[in-house]
Amino acid sequence: MTIEIDDLRIRFGEHEVVKGISFAVAEGESFGIVGESGSGKSTVLRAMAGLNQSWEGRIAFSGEPVEAKRPPAFFRKVQMVFQDPYGSLHPRQTIDRILSELPLVHGLDGIEKRIARALSDVTLPQSVRFRYPHQLSGGQRQRVAIARALIAEPRVLLLDEPTSALDVSVQAEILNLLADLRVERGLTYVMVSHNLSVIAHLCGMVGVMIDGQMVEQVSVDNLRLGKVEHSHTKELRSLSVELEEPA
């Protein structure tokens, strides 16, 4: 599923927090948005996901523009994975119940098989189904959050800082898992992060945001070679120590 964003503008009251950004993502590719806190990157993602309905411009998936309010079928095609895996999972529901919710809402059949496949795809044992979120590690909780997003077989995943709440040792595992899932399922990704090395690990193209503007779009290959133009991109690159090709 392709993605097109044209002249996207978002205001909170009188304050314009996203100032006319545009980018496109080809089907099966991964686009990263990097920027400091307050740059507007997560606000863009929430508008794409249908969680923020106050925006102007054009958001299109597979060439079809979407309205501010999305029909239920949209959420089968486009799913979001949030930053905090503990906060996004209901603490009083078992993993089985959490993973059952979306198929039940959409009237999907074969829920048992869907749950089993989703857990397998994120390399979690089936026994996890009968545990609660607090009984899992941070990395396991984020794998459950990814499984929940996958269970309706979407075409697009929107990833909001999916590894920032995790230990460094676990971050690479989750990024490698997401990379494998994108290839295996033909998914299209948009990921936001403040960490340029995390973006470079998963994405082929990067959009750099500052103060609500996307000031540069650059391939990760050129980023690694230092072939960047905007001063903010150069600054972010200089602060990152892990832009080499992943092993």
What's this model, at a glance?
This protein has 247 residues and is of the alpha/beta class.
In CATH, the homologous superfamily goes by the name P-loop containing nucleotide triphosphate hydrolases
Put simply, the count of helices is 9
Q: Structural class of the secondary structure composition? A: alpha/beta
In terms of per-residue confidence, which ranges show pLDDT below 50 for 5 or more consecutive residues?
none
CATH architecture: 3-Layer(aba) Sandwich
Q: Briefly, what CATH class?
A: Alpha Beta
Largest sheet: 6 strands, mixed
Q: What would the average pLDDT be, to the nearest integer?
A: 92
Helix-residue proportion: 25-40%
What is the CA-based Rg, rounded?
18 Å
Number of strands: 10
Shape: globular
Order of helices and strands: EEEHEEHEHHHEHEHEEHH
Report the span from N to C terminus: 28 Å
Q: Major sheet: order of its strands?
A: 6-7-8-3-9-10
Number of domains: 1
Strand content: 25-35%
What is the CATH third-level topology name? Rossmann fold
